[in-house]
Amino acid sequence: MRPAWWYKLRPMMRARVVGRSMEPTLADGQPVWVSGWPLWCRSPRRGELVVVRVADTQDHARLDVKRIVGLPGDEIRWQGGRVRVDGRALDEPYATIAAGAPGDDETGVRLSVGQYFVAGDNRLYSVDSRRYGPIDRSQLVGVVLIARARMRAPTRPRV
């Protein structure tokens, strides 16, 4: 797989959401258009949808679509399925929050310079920073700019 910086050189690339981790915002199989250019011009923003390059195994990596919930300098905690940033619950109208979702952590983690905390919108089914820890800015591939509706095969009328 190519390094994350290679994707940032392309003005736009098409990706496909895999799995249920971003429901209800993005569905499994939904195509999205991603650009790495915004990450060259500015810092990533909280709430932004991004594509992240994460290690799948020791020799392989995968690209995941996730939402940025923690920025450098934040202290992140999970309580009752909700994200707490510096002690305050984050307002996340886009997230499907379930009590007992994996990742509740009373100790929390303080993000250092260049680190981000990402999560899927469907917290019950998302493998994200709760599992693999904070991500480095160099792992951010791009920002999701356009999410197209899934195309379905036309149905034939029954006679």
Describe the overall structure:
With 159 residues, this protein is mostly beta strands. The protein has a domain of 99 residues: Ribbon (Umud Fragment, subunit A). The chain has a seven-stranded antiparallel sheet. Strands 7-6-5-8 form a four-stranded antiparallel sheet, with no helix packed on it. The chain is globular, with a radius of gyration of 16 Å. It starts with a helix and ends in a 12-residue tail after the last strand. The C terminus is likely disordered.
Summary tags:
single chain; 159 residues; mainly beta; Umud Fragment, subunit A; 4-stranded antiparallel beta sheet; 3 helices; 36% strand; globular
CATH architecture group name of the domain at 4-70 and 116-147: Ribbon
Beta strand count: 11
Percent strand: 35-45%
Question: Could you say what the CATH topology of the domain at 4-70 and 116-147 is called?
Answer: Umud Fragment, subunit A
Which regions have little confidence, pLDDT < 50, spanning 5+ residues? 151-159
* Proportion of helical residues: under 10%
Report the span from N to C terminus.
49 Å
Instruction: Report the mean per-residue pLDDT as an integer.
Output: 82
Give the topology string: H per helix, E per strand.
Answer: HEEHEEEEEEEHEE
Q: What is the number of helical segments per DSSP (H or I, 4+ residues)?
A: 3
Radius of gyration: 16 Å
Highest-level CATH class of the domain at 4-70 and 116-147:
Mainly Beta
Coarse shape: globular
Physical arrangement of strands within the biggest beta sheet: 1-2-11-3-4-9-10
Q: Tell me about the biggest sheet? A: 7 strands, antiparallel
Helix/strand-derived class? mainly beta
The CATH superfamily of the domain at 4-70 and 116-147 appears as Umud Fragment, subunit A
